[in-house]
Design a protein that fits this description.
heterodimer, A: 114 residues, mainly beta, six-stranded mixed beta sheet, five-stranded antiparallel beta sheet, 11 strands, B: 112 residues, seven-stranded mixed beta sheet, 52% strand
């Protein structure tokens, strides 16, 4: 299958707390999992990614975890700030197709409130 | 990060007309993509392009769609004729390694 499921669709957190977004995928051959942040009227911007040879990656306040057995990956934003408010999309490379393509999750609208 | 450019940023056309969306990918990138995003939803893959050829297209890539990149110039998506349901934001992306993709600012297409 080629589906990527993303939850929650809406997430509201207090400034300074953590936010977590979870995704699951179907294709066990998927080997690359990027996360994109999209602000209103803007293009999706790559913020962090993880490959299947890793279980954890951190860039500043962003942490991604990958559980290949469960076919799940997640984004954790620690110490959230109002500037983190945006749509977040997870994606997976579908490697079983003849050529790579990204399949996106449905998106999470994150609001960080003061 | 690497910059992908798209022209025009907005386009309004009448149903049945032809439209060409232009993408200027990152200069040393080899893989090019088009995605379609309807308001409030995720990006959906349309087509990928490598070495002058379409490698894969999705069910959304109707017969009225075509892509090309003549002589290393713009990577274009042409829709002829357009339909009302083609109204969306179209994002071009490019990649050096076929995995990490960088998205352009999008073209907002409105078909009346």
């Amino acid at each position: 299958g080629e589906q990527v499921e993303q939850l929650p669709s809406i997430l509201r957190v207090q400034e300074g707390s953590s936010a977590s977004i979870n995704c699951s995928y179907e294709d066990s051959a998927s080997n690359y999992f990027p996360w994109y942040k999209q602000e209103p009227g803007e293009n999706p911007k790559l913020i962090i990614d993880i490959r299947s040879n890793m279980e954890r990656k951190q860039i500043q306040e962003l942490i991604v975890l990958l559980d290949k057995k469960a076919k799940r990956f997640s984004l954790h934003i620690t110490d959230t700030q109002p500037g983190d408010s945006a749509m977040y999309f997870c994606a997976a490379i579908i490697a079983s197709s003849s050529f790579s393509k990204l399949v996106f999750g449905q998106g999470t609208s994150l609001s960080v409130v003061p | 990060g690497p910059k992908v450019l798209q022209i025009p940023s907005h386009q309004i056309i009448d149903m049945g007309q032809m439209v060409t969306l232009n993408c200027d990918p990152v200069s040393n990138h080899l893989y090019f993509y088009w995605y379609k995003q309807i308001l409030g939803q995720q990006m959906e893959f349309l087509v990928n392009f490598y070495n002058g050829k379409v490698m894969e297209k999705s069910k959304l890539f109707k017969d009225q769609f075509s892509v090309e990149r003549p002589d290393g110039s713009y990577f274009t998506l042409k829709i002829q004729p357009t339909a009302l349901e083609d109204s969306a934001v179209y994002f071009c992306a490019s990649s050096l390694d076929g995995d990490t993709q960088y998205f352009g600012p999008g073209t907002r297409l409105l078909v009346l």
